[in-house]
Specification:
Cofactor: [4Fe-4S] cluster
CATH class of the largest domain: Alpha Beta
Radius of gyration: 25 Å
Number of helices: 26
Helix content: 25-40%
Keywords: Iron, Iron-sulfur, Lyase, Metal-binding, Transit peptide, Tricarboxylic acid cycle
Family: Belongs to the aconitase/IPM isomerase family.
CATH topology of the largest domain: Aconitase, domain 3
GO molecular function, one term: 4 iron, 4 sulfur cluster binding
EC number: 4.2.1.3
């Protein structure tokens, strides 16, 4: 039987009644997304309609998932909430802290020794509070979730931006910060602005080298990294039904790269087949009984432009393989145009490494399609020109792939099989390289390719493609190679052409595993001790943030005016800093060290207004904090895009930054700032960004009348004695203003729990 099947049955028991009530209050046919959203209102049966893109709504998610890097802070926060057990089914997955260096077995052993105290903490806190624990090596959170926990029509939040992967099984799954997870685990409603809806109609059917990955690579090219912000992307049409469940998951997973709240497909036979293949026939049977509620109403499909805020159409029969990049996941190149782009832009043509796997593309089907290409390197006597690595998504996939000879195929090609973990996708890659500053090219089947993302090297040009295209490019060792049209010279001097990839959706012999890596929690955790050493440099119990002092904020110093793209990787880098995810003081030493200072075009170099000297960003901010002076961070467009990591919000809060003032925010980061009691403000006139000067002292006025929809006033005191004044907008509602006044949302949770 599936995990938490009783919970799933309760969701389905209420689904029909709630969908019909929603249809009545909205007054029209409903999309799939609307059905699931209205069925998960914290108030229960819908009694009013909510305007998309404007109304804040309280929801009651069915479950929570956390990966080990973000789970540390999420659970440290949950410990402050005062509850004996989580209110909804929750899981922790140890996938982020395993560094890829040599190979699966040795890397996993190294990680277990290096991270033992963190794993012990996560295991003990999970055991105490009723949380399912997936041990290191069990797999990547999103692959494990789609194999075990995702269910059609459900709603889940997860402390990782690629949580939407579960949309491949028709689940509303949304990436959040740890504070949001803490709320839901504590039994409180979870707040979200009612998303807009983007419809993507898929016609035709994929063939040849084209894959599900190419659908989202194409969509990313259309919508860009912020085109999906505030929206759910809903895929439909006969083309959608032709895709496997894990292929759908790939598309939903990478929807995070367009800023989408989440992405989703309607329930269909391919999902039912995957549920049955992964020993969840009970869910498939239950979903079948309510399948009319697990798809949009017929009227929506008949006239989609009337029901979606934006509509995109893609013919899968005409879709080319795409390669996206470098440095951004939305720079989309059809394969037929890619070689020309490489040459015209002067990108390094030689391909040094090809990497497949990750949470985006590590299903059994992905591995079979790649293996069908890899096998040709041996059978056609081709010498593989690039390094090649394989990251299985879970122990279930790895064990099955090994049994069926797929891993042996990759090793025969010269590939290295890494641990079932995130690895190079998130910068956990000890790359062997002669000169880390040398311009070079890599290609991955991952999701993100920001500068320094994979190997910490700003000169690495990272491109994103499907696993089979990555495999073909690795064999060729050349970014100008087109496997659809070009030939390669084998060891005998013969010209050979790669055949089109062939995939197997589900293993013929079924899935198999000896130890999936799951640890169930204690029935009664009251006697379990949570393991945190007071002398640890990896873990640190939290102290509550102070409440707002009740006045306007005066005399704040400008910490940094960030120029251009400033992602959560720039604000709080991953890679070697992952080890401090449970220690707020230590990890705060990476705050904004990747952001480019507008005034000197340097990273990690800002002016200390107390001394007039330049210093590292965290050091300057610590100096302001020691002097009792608050500060302001100024940013550009889509500030905080990328990973959901809440450390990017907690670090400035901890070090005394009072406000983040930007041209626009990425959704998750803006929410994270609010949760931590920060002021998240946007320029009412984006051109006012240009008024910020390096030596500015800043006042924020209007806080004593802080109210929804009412702008605050910014006063800049320049070093020459002049001033500038302008308005700053915000999106705080009444509840979020209470978070600010209390000092953090968690402070309110604790007050209510102890009341």
């Amino acid at each position: 039987m599936a995990f938490d099947f009783d919970m799933i049955q309760r969701v389905y028991a209420n689904l029909g009644e709630r969908v019909e009530a929603a249809r009545q209050v909205v007054g029209r046919p409903l999309t799939l997304s609307e059905k699931i959203l209205y069925a998960h209102l914290s108030a229960g049966t819908p009694s009013r309609a909510y305007e998309r893109g404007k109304a804040y709504v309280d929801f009651a998610p069915d479950r929570v998932a956390m990966q080990d890097a973000t789970a540390q802070m999420a659970l440290l926060q949950f410990m402050q909430a005062g509850r004996p057990k989580v209110a909804v089914p929750s899981t922790v997955h140890c996938d982020h802290l395993i560094q890829a260096e040599v190979g699966a077995e040795q890397d996993l052993d190294t990680a277990k020794n290096k991270n033992r105290e963190v794993y012990d903490f996560l295991a003990s806190v999970s055991n105490k509070y009723g949380i399912g624990f997936w041990k290191p090596g069990a797999g990547i959170i999103h692959q494990v979730v789609i194999e075990n926990y995702a269910f059609p029509g459900g709603m889940m939040i997860g402390t990782d931006s690629h949580t939407p992967n579960a949309g491949g099984l028709s689940m509303i799954a949304i990436g959040v910060g740890g504070a949001d997870a803490c709320d839901v685990m504590a039994g409180l409603p979870w707040e979200l602005k009612m998303p807009k809806l983007i419809g993507v109609k898929l016609t035709g059917k994929l063939s040849g080298w084209a894959s599900a990955k190419d659908v989202i690579l194409r969509v990313a090219g259309i919508l860009t990294v912020k085109g999906g912000t505030g929206a759910i992307v809903e895929y439909f049409g006969e083309g959608a039904e032709s895709l496997s469940a894990t292929g759908k998951g790939t598309i939903c997973n990478m929807g995070a790269e367009i800023g989408a709240t989440t992405s989703i497909f309607a329930y269909d036979e391919r999902m039912a087949a995957y549920l049955r293949a992964t020993n969840r026939a009970d869910i498939a049977d239950a979903a079948e009984a309510v399948k009319q509620h697990l798809r949009s109403d017929d009227e929506v499909y008949a006239d989609p432009a009337t029901y979606y805020d934006q509509l995109i159409e893609i013919n899968l029969s005409e879709l080319e393989p795409h390669i996206n990049g470098p440095f951004t996941p939305d720079l989309a190149w059809p394969l037929s145009n890619f070689a020309k782009a490489v040459k015209e832009n002067g990108w390094p043509e030689k391909l040094e490494v090809g990497l497949i796997g990750s949470c985006t593309n590590s299903s059994y089907e992905d591995l079979t399609r790649s293996a069908s290409v890899a096998e040709q390197a041996v059978s056609k006597n081709l010498k593989v020109k690039s390094e090649f690595t394989v990251t299985p998504g879970s122990e279930l996939v790895r064990f099955t792939a090994e049994r069926d000879g797929l891993l042996n195929t990759f090793e025969n090609m010269g590939g290295v099989v890494l641990a079932n973990a995130c690895g190079p996708c998130i910068g956990q890659w000890a790359r062997h390289m002669d000169d880390p500053s040398r311009k070079n090219s890599i290609i991955t089947s991952f999701n993100r390719n920001f500068a320094k993302r994979n190997d910490g090297n700003a000169s690495t040009h990272a491109f994103v493609a499907s696993p089979e295209i990555v495999t073909a490019f690795a064999i060729a060792g050349d970014l100008t190679f087109n496997p659809m049209t070009d030939t390669l010279t084998n060891e005998n001097g013969e010209q050979v052409k790669l055949d089109e990839p062939q995939g197997i959706e589900q293993p013929v012999k079924g899935y198999a595993v000896e130890d999936a890596g799951y640890q169930a929690p204690a029935e009664d955790g009251s006697g379990v001790q949570v393991l945190v050493s007071p002398t640890s440099d990896r873990l640190q119990l939290l102290e509550p943030f102070p409440a707002w002092e009740g006045t306007d904020l005066k005399g704040l110093k400008l910490l940094i005016k960030a120029k251009g793209k400033c992602t959560t990787d720039h604000i709080s880098m991953a890679g070697p800093w992952l080890k401090y995810r449970g220690h707020l003081d230590n990890i705060s030493n990476n705050m904004l060290i990747g952001a480019v200072n507008y005034f000197n075009e340097k990273t990690n170099s800002v002016k200390n207004q107390l001394t007039g000297e330049y210093g590292e960003v965290p050091a300057v901010q610590r100096a302001y904090k020691a002097a009792g002076i608050g500060s302001v961070v100024v940013g550009d467009e889509n500030y905080g895009e990328g990973s959901s990591r809440e450390h990017a919000a907690m670090e400035p809060r901890f070090l005394g930054v009072r406000a983040i003032l930007v041209r626009s925010f990425a959704r998750i980061h803006e929410t994270n700032l609010k949760k931590q009691g920060m002021l998240a403000l946007t320029f009412a006139n984006p051109a006012d960004y240009d008024k910020i000067q390096e030596d500015d002292t800043i006042d924020i006025e209007g806080l004593t009348e802080f109210a929804p929809g009412r702008p605050l006033e910014i006063v800049l005191h320049h070093a020459d004695g002049t001033t500038d004044e302008f308005l700053a907008n915000h999106t705080y509602n009444e509840g979020q203003i209470e978070w600010f006044k209390a000092g953090a949302a968690l402070n309110l949770i604790r007050q209510k729990t102890n009341a």
